[in-house]
TrEMBL record:
It comes from Variovorax ureilyticus. This is ATP-binding cassette domain-containing protein. Keywords: ATP-binding, Cell membrane, Membrane, Nucleotide-binding. The keyword Ligase does not apply. Residues 1-204 form the ABC transporter domain. InterPro entries: AAA+_ATPase, ABC_transporter-like_ATP-bd, P-loop_NTPase. GO terms for molecular function: ATP binding.
Length: 204
């Protein structure tokens, strides 16, 4: 088995945050916790190359981020914000090019009806949109998924289904960095837990 981590972050900093050093192995789920305003979203956005880093290295399977285009990197290292964006009125329009049978299966696993693909986003609940955001993320086959409080609007049964679907994906090798405020959730899903404070990682 390779000892190169799926995701390696070394000395990553922006003008106002860091340095951050961490790694996530293939098939691993690392939980990020910390007070509101601690810098968790800032870290995920730096890793996804959505905000410009001032220094540091980010590698995917040993290859530096600079070797890929920005969009190419973000397809492999996919950031799912706490409030995911939708750019077309109908759900199905966000799944162009996706394996629609797999999309249907994932939606069903999250308790969403088949007909939801033809629904208008403005008619869906926050929790339905939050579950669809995960289906959309997974349908793109990322190597690393950066999840920012992804289950904040869900009931307990939906949360457990959401976690189970992600456990299947880590079982196939996907790596996850998962921001949550729930200690119970961290205990269920996290192989390891890191804490962010004052816009930097706290040492364990
Ligand atoms: N682009 C920016 N420029 C300046 N300050 C920023 C920027 N983005 C975030 N911040 C600040 O950095 C701090 C950390 O924000 P961040 O969104 O990472 O917090 P968080 O840990 O994700 O909090 P929460 O749990 O509430 O989502 C906050 O004080 C925020 O105002």
């Amino acid at each position: 088995m390779s000892c190169i981590p799926r995701l390696r972050v070394h000395g990553l900093r922006s003008a106002m945050a860091g340095p951050f050093d961490l790694h996530v192995d293939a098939g691993e789920c690392v939980v990020l916790m910390g007070k509101s305003g601690a810098g968790k979203t800032v870290l995920l956005r730096l890793i996804a190359d959505l905000d410009p880093p001032r220094a540091g290295v980010v590698e995917l399977d040993g290859a530096r981020r600079e070797r890929l285009s920005g969009p190419g990197w973000r397809r492999r290292v996919l950031y799912q914000p706490a409030e995911p964006a939708w750019w077309s009125p109908v759900v199905r329009q966000h799944f162009d090019g996706a394996d629609i049978d797999r999309v249907r299966a994932m939606a069903a696993a999250l308790g969403l009806p088949d007909a939801i693909l033809d629904a208008e986003l403005m008619h869906l609940s926050t929790g339905e949109r939050q579950r669809l955001a995960l289906v959309r993320s997974l349908s793109r086959g990322p190597s690393v998924l950066l999840l920012d409080e992804p289950t904040a609007s869900l009931d307990q049964a939906s949360i457990l289904a959401y976690e189970a679907l992600l456990a299947e994906e880590t079982g196939k090798g996907m790596a996850i960095l998962w921001v949550t405020h729930s200690r119970e959730q961290a205990g269920r899903v996290g192989h390891r837990c890191l804490t962010v404070a004052d816009r930097a990682l706290q040492s364990a």
